[in-house]
Amino acid sequence: EIAYYHDRFVDVDERVIPIQERGHQFGDGIYEVIRVYDGEPFTMKEHMERLEKSAEAIGMGLPYSREKIEALALEALERSGIQEAEIYMQITRGIHLRQHHYPDPSEPVLSMVVKEARKLTPEKRAAGVPVITTEEIRWKMCWIKSLNLLPNVMAKQKAMEAGAHEAVFVDQGTVTEGSSSNLFIVKDGTLLTHPATNAILHGITRRVILDIAEELGIPVEERTFTLDELLEADEAFLSSTTMEAASISAVDGRPLKGGRTLLDRIHARFVERTKKE
Ligand code: PDD
């Protein structure tokens, strides 16, 4: 494990955040999680583009050029010596006497942690994972990868306490996404997922899966679907940087059909891509 804060590499356990850091006091910042396969960051470009979009959306500049941030991430990765890694990267609006409005000038601060990747166990990948549903209580800009994750944290905790793997937000009957993942269902051979609106994070894995589906000639519809449609789906799965594409076995204790014809085809192609990049 290795970490970076502001302008230097640090030990992950070192206490480095100044008390008036806005990420810490307001959650005033953004982040990315990038998976590394066999020493190679996967879809780095897409993550960096999303990071830039999120920064722009909150009116914040990046502390360094994209090239420099990428170079620092690669240096961190190398220093960590980890082959199957996860790069956590966050940028906050910096350190300033506490006030709500933006400091002027603001000096954004980069931090990173590189650690061993969390992986779904082969058993869970084979059997699928149970999820629970929870009321959508988040804000209307879920596409920004904001540090403000309290609703997501609370939802995930609820899932853990229920013995489930993920909590799925449901907004008046419509399934939006998981606390840290996107959702897909398959109905009569068509792959469905929530459109990339303000209501969800536009997952990079989601994008890769849609791309693979197109490559495989699988019909896709980016449209909202209801909890009932999820319960009746032929296949249902979660997608995220850490889970890749993971079958959902049950929702609120109700077993799903558990089909995985398209999921297995898509996931096999996904794994190939992680090896090619
Ligand atoms: N979470 N939706 C939410 C709310 C997320 O937090 C994430 C990712 C996703 C999936 O996005 P992607 O495919 O780009 O990882 C969807 C990361 C992994 C996290 O917070 O740890």
UniProtKB/TrEMBL annotation:
The keyword Transferase is assigned to this record: yes
Protein name: D-alanine aminotransferase
Cofactors demanded by this protein: pyridoxal 5'-phosphate
Enzyme class (EC, first level): transferase
Domain of life, per lineage: Bacteria
Catalytic reaction equation(s): D-alanine + 2-oxoglutarate = D-glutamate + pyruvate
Protein function: Acts on the D-isomers of alanine, leucine, aspartate, glutamate, aminobutyrate, norvaline and asparagine. The enzyme transfers an amino group from a substrate D-amino acid to the pyridoxal phosphate cofactor to form pyridoxamine and an alpha-keto acid in the first half-reaction.
EC number: 2.6.1.21
Subunit structure: Homodimer.
Originating gene: dat
One of the GO BP terms on file: D-amino acid metabolic process
GO molecular function: D-alanine-2-oxoglutarate aminotransferase activity; pyridoxal phosphate binding
CDD domains: D-AAT_like
Keyword Nucleus recorded: no
Matches recorded under InterPro entries: Aminotrans_IV, Aminotrans_IV_CS, Aminotransferase-like, BCAT-like_C, BCAT-like_N, Class-IV_PLP-Dep_Aminotrnsfr, D_amino_transT
GO cellular component, one term: cytosol
Family note: Belongs to the class-IV pyridoxal-phosphate-dependent aminotransferase family.
